Amino acid sequence: MKLEWIGHACFRMTAEDGTMIVTDPYDDSVGIRVPKLTADLVTVSHEHHDHNNLDIVEGRPKVAREARAAQVGGVTTQAVTSYHDDRGGALRGRNNVRIFRIDALKVVHMGDQGCMPDETVMQAILDADVMMIPVGGFYTIDARQAAELAKKIAPAVTVPMHYRGDGFGYDVIAPVGDFLRLMDNVVMLDDNVIEPEKLDAPVVAVPKCPRG
Questions:
Q1: How far apart are alpha carbons 195 and 135 in whole angstroms?
Q2: Cβ–Cβ < 8 Å for 8, 162
Q3: pLDDT for 120-160, tens place per residue?
Q4: Which residue(s) pair with 157 in the sheet?
Q5: pLDDT digit string, tens, across residues 66-100
Q6: Full-prediction pTM beyond 0.85?
Q7: What distances in angstroms separate CA 29 from CA 33, 179, 189, one per listed residue?
Q8: 47-73 confidence digits (pLDDT tens)
Q9: E strands of the chain, at which residues?
Q10: Does the first or last residue of the chain, that is N or C, have fewer Cβ atoms within 10 Å of its Cβ?
Q11: What is the DSSP string of 104-147?
Q12: Taking the alpha carbons of 158, 160, 166, 167 in that order, is the dihedral positive or negative?
């Protein structure tokens, strides 16, 4: 599998058979050039404008919203419902944590997880090989909570997302460095592409933001 960080909480995964999945496509409020992407499946963790901009995905891909399961090619996905805040969804509603089976890997995309996961979510994400996790706080869990969660799950590859960088991300969320200072085995990548099988796991892989 090849994993590309498109920016914010958006990734594109390409399976060995060529099947492509895009997660949480964003809009231009994020401060990153909105690209045009191709995909066979698009997943949406929740219906906020920086996570559900289907217009950037060309063609007619299958779309999996809410906790809907889906299969395309050899890739399967299911989701478990959580919350976008620490008040049972009262502030920002629900969030769906998405679990993918792609090639031989279990890949977890936490969406805008806004609180420490309950037991149902924890059981669903155990044994993850790759986990994409929000770290910026305010709208999601913060660096300390993200580090605690990452250490509990202990995936082979942890990928931080949904943070503020140089010229991108919302002002109210924190930079990725707050999270990285709490983690070991951090690798800063030269581009936005991650190939998990080629990394010396366990590792926190930080792809370069694909601005342009």
A1: 21
A2: yes
A3: 999 999 999 999 999 999 999 999 999 999 999 999 999 99
A4: 130, 203
A5: 899 999 999 999 999 998 878 887 888 789 999 99
A6: yes
A7: 10, 23, 25
A8: 889 899 999 999 899 999 989 999 999
A9: 2-7, 10-14, 20-23, 37-38, 41-44, 57-58, 62-65, 70-72, 75-83, 94-102, 105-109, 130-134, 157-161, 186-188, 193-194, 203-206
A10: C
A11: TEEEEE--S--S---HHHHHHHTT-SEEEEE-S-SSS--HHHHH
A12: positive
For position 73, what pLDDT does the model report?
Answer: 94
Distance CA 177, CA 175 (A): 5
DSSP letters of 177-190? HHHHTT-SSEEE-S
Distances in whole angstroms, Cα of residue 55 to Cα of each of 19, 50, 52, 82, 157: 20, 12, 9, 26, 30
What is the radius of gyration, based on Cα positions, of the chain? 15
Residue 28: both structure tokens together: 């231009």
Q: Which two three-digit tokens encode residue 31?
A: 């401060």
The kind and range of the H/E element at 149 are: helix 143-153
